[in-house]
TrEMBL record:
Protein known as: Leucine-rich repeat-containing N-terminal plant-type domain-containing protein
Highest classification ranks of the organism: Eukaryota, Viridiplantae, Streptophyta, Embryophyta, Tracheophyta
A Pfam family assignment: LRR_1
Keywords from the named record: Glycoprotein, Leucine-rich repeat, Membrane, Receptor, Repeat, Signal, Transmembrane, Transmembrane helix
InterPro entries, per the entry: Leu-rich_rpt, LRR_dom_sf, LRR_N_plant-typ, RLP23-like
Topology with respect to the bilayer: Single-pass type I membrane protein
PANTHER family for this protein: LEUCINE-RICH RECEPTOR-LIKE KINASE FAMILY PROTEIN (PTHR48063:SF63), LRR RECEPTOR-LIKE KINASE (PTHR48063)
Record Gene3D superfamilies: Ribonuclease Inhibitor
One GO location term (cellular component): membrane
Record's subcellular location: Membrane
Membrane-spanning ranges: 6-25
Span of domain Leucine-rich repeat-containing N-terminal plant-type: 37-76
Source organism per UniProt: Arachis hypogaea
SUPFAM superfamilies assigned to the protein according to its UniProt record, in alphabetical order: L domain-like (SSF52058)
Chief site of localization: membrane
Length: 209
């Protein structure tokens, strides 16, 4: 090979590398996000203990290993850690004008999560958004391990069915900006709530004693 051929080959290779990189950059950003295996296992364990009567979490399965593509899960585009879990069951706002309690549609009733909350969720060390509102964790006291997820900035437990006094460990969630405990039955706020100095929103409407 003459030096010229070498230069030519080098240029062709460079052009291909360039085109390949362009393809990577222009392909959908979310396709490149890969799930962290230990976090996938934690989510699968969490699902295993949850009751999901209308199979809303069907995408959470081992043959669909990229948990960043699962429904209700949001990962970081940079670190791939799970950041958000949107496990709320929100009644459409057309019911807002009805007094509480109301007869809710059967389809809504059937789509609510119930069962047990597994502490595997604590393994999601970067979780900052957890919404469990509108579900049917009836008869269950607050799982205190939820208050060990100190990365949380947004926690919505409104109308989740959890009841009883809010555990004092809530004072450890010092990064919280948004906390909603509306419609929590027999819930009293502990004085440690005063530790949450970053709170911008605290929802306590319709807390029933
Ligand atoms: C796993 O999730 C994928 C993607 O949502 C879905 O197409 C597939 O049917 C699921 N498998 C099971 C066994 O639920
Ligand atoms: C969960 O809440 C968000 C708003 O925070 C809403 O857009 C979404 O529809 C809700 N999901 C369900 C399944 O109710
Ligand atoms: C979470 O699940 C594991 C096994 O899947 C179980 O051993 C453990 O007791 C559960 N923890 C809670 C708090 O339910
Ligand atoms: C949480 O807060 C309590 C006091 O409310 C404290 O005793 C405990 O050490 C804190 N830390 C953890 C990790 O629970
Ligand atoms: C209050 O928050 C700090 C962190 O900012 C934490 O070390 C402490 O344990 C918390 N205290 C209570 C009573 O929760």
């Amino acid at each position: 090979m003459s030096p010229n051929t070498n230069t030519y080959t080098g240029m062709v290779v460079l052009i291909f590398v360039h085109l390949y990189c362009m393809t990577l950059l222009t392909s959908s950003e979310s396709e490149l996000i890969e799930c962290i295996p230990s976090e996938r296992e934690a989510l699968l364990r969490f699902k295993h203990h949850l009751t999901d009567p209308s199979n809303r979490l069907s995408s959470w399965n081992a043959s669909n290993p990229n948990c960043c593509h699962w429904d209700y899960v949001v990962c970081s585009h940079l670190t791939f850690h799970v950041l958000h879990l949107h496990l709320n069951t929100t009644l459409s706002s057309e019911y807002d004008e009805y007094p509480f309690p109301i007869a809710v549609p059967l389809a809504y009733e059937r789509s609510r999560f119930s069962g047990a909350i597994n502490d595997s969720v604590v393994e999601l060390k970067h979780l900052n958004y957890l919404d469990l509102s509108g579900n049917s964790f009836g008869g269950m006291q607050f799982p205190t391990f939820l208050f060990r997820i100190t990365s949380l900035t947004h926690l919505d437990l409104s109308a989740s069915g959890f009841y009883g006094n809010i555990p004092h460990q809530i004072g450890n969630l010092s990064n919280l900006l948004h906390l909603d405990l509306s419609y929590v039955a027999y819930g009293k706020l502990p004085h440690q709530i005063g530790n949450l100095t970053n709170l911008i929103h605290l929802g306590t409407s319709h807390m029933l004693y």
